[in-house]
Amino acid sequence: MASAGDIKNGLIIEFNNDLYAVVEFQHVKPGKGAAFVRTKLRNIKTGKVLPNTFPAGAKITIQRVERRPMQFLYQDGDDYNFMNAESFEQIAIPKELIDAPQFLKEGEKAEVMYHTDTDSVLLCELPNTVNLLVTYTEPGERGNTATNAMKEATLETGAIIRVPLFINIGDKIKIDTKASAYAERVKE
User: Fold this and answer.
1) pLDDT digit string (tens) for 42-93?
2) What CA–CA distance (Å, rounded) separates 7 from 57?
3) What pLDDT digit, counting tens, does each position of 101-117 carry?
4) Cα–Cα distance between 174 and 164 in angstroms, integer?
C-alpha cells in the first residue's frame, strides 16, 4: 500500500471500490494543521471527474494498468473485435468500453487499457484525431460564409457530425475523437 504522498498525475488508484485515474493533484502544507493532498480523480469506466482531498498519511491502493496497442478488425452486433498487433490474439470489446466507437473504421489503431490483476479490459481509447472520408453532405450555399455556418455530414463509418459549409462529398477530414467534432480538412 502506498500513502497519499505518492500520488501523481496518471496514477490509477482504487477508491470507493472503483478505479480512478489521478487527473490533477496538489500537495498542501498549511502553516497550521496537517498536510493534505487535493486531487481530481476521473472514474475509468464513466469518465466522471470527482474532487477529493486525502490527509497526508492516508493509505491508497495503487492498481496496475497496462496499455496494449490493438487494431480494430470488425463489428459484430454490440461487440467490436480487436487484434493484438504483437501476439495476433483477438478479443471482443463491448461498445460501452470504447470512448468513440462511431469513428472506428477497419484497420484503425487503438489503445486498450487492461487491469493487470484481473486481466480484464477497462477501456479502449482511440487516437486523439482520426482521418475519415465524407460520404454524404448537402452542398454549401454561396453567401452563407459570413458566420460560422455548419451543416451535417455523413462519414465513411456512418457517423454524422457538423462540418463547415466548404466541405464536400469525397473530402477527407480530421475528427477530434474526444470532442466528437470536426477539426480540419486533410490536404492530400
Assistant:
1) 888 777 889 999 998 889 998 888 888 999 999 888 899 999 888 889 999 9
2) 12
3) 889 889 999 998 888 88
4) 12
Identity (one letter) of the amino acid at 112? V
Last residue of one domain, picked from the residues 125, 159, 176:
125
Q: Is 95 helix (H, G, I), strand (E, B) or coil?
A: helix
Parent domain of 48? 2-62
- C-alpha cell read off for 185: 480538412
- CATH number of the domain that residue 167 is part of: 2.40.50.140
Report residue 39 as a C-alpha cell. 486531487
| Residue that has been written with the C-alpha cell 496537517 in this structure | 34
- Output the domain CATH number for residue 31: 2.30.30.30
Res. 145 pLDDT band, cuts 50 70 90: low
Are 52 and 73 in a shared domain? no
